[in-house]
Amino acid sequence: MKTMFVGGARSGKSRLAQAAAEDHDGALYYLATAEAHDDEMTDRIARHRDDRDARWRTVECPVALPEAIDECGDGVVLIDCLTLWLSNVMLGEHDVTARSAALLAAMRRRVAPLYVVTNEVGLGIVPVHPLGRQFRDAAGRLNQQVADAMSANYFVVAGMVLPLQRFPVER
Q: How far is Cα 36 from Cα 28, in angstroms, rounded to an integer?
């Protein structure tokens, strides 16, 4: 089972993904992509850690997410979050196409349950700054590619989920 939860900020997607992962027995791996560059983010990360019980093993992987996925063995994996990972890749001036391909390959190799949390960034206004537009476009492409690799996708709004389905289009 591979599931993606996509939604806006504070939509409840992380909470729902964590609850879904915790329904499984065995090892739980929380692949954290956030980095604490300021006090507010340090507090936010601490709150997320406090929400997880002792079953969880946290793996910090701001850029090395594909490699971290491969190292989790048979455990349940929760990635939180894909858009933070993408921003780390872009700001670190890594090759977005190559890193995204590596990520998708790692996700496809995964046999044990995988849960992915990501932000929907295309519902707002067009960013005024070129980097903002590049990020929005890259996030949109990555979300589509990841959604295609998942067995289930949910859009989260106000803590409620809306199942997403593929549109039957001939390619």
A: 23
pLDDT digits (tens, 9 = 90+) for 59-118: 999 999 999 999 999 999 999 999 999 999 999 999 999 999 999 999 999 999 999 999
| Residues known to be catalytic | 48
For the stretch 23-60, pLDDT in tens is 999 999 999 998 888 898 888 888 888 889 999 999 99
Residue 12 one-letter amino acid = G
Q: What is the DSSP string of 4-34?
A: EEEE-TTSSHHHHHHHHHHTS-S-EEEEE--
* Cβ burial 82-110 (10 Å sphere, 16+ → b, else e): bbbbbbbbbeeeeebeebbebbbebbeee
Q: Strand 76-80: give its sheet, edge to edge.
A: 56-60, 28-32, 76-80, 114-119, 2-7, 152-157, 160-164
Judged by phi (left if over 0) then psi (alpha if -120 to 50, else beta), residue 93 lies in left
Q: Which two tokens stand for residue 130?
A: 């070129």
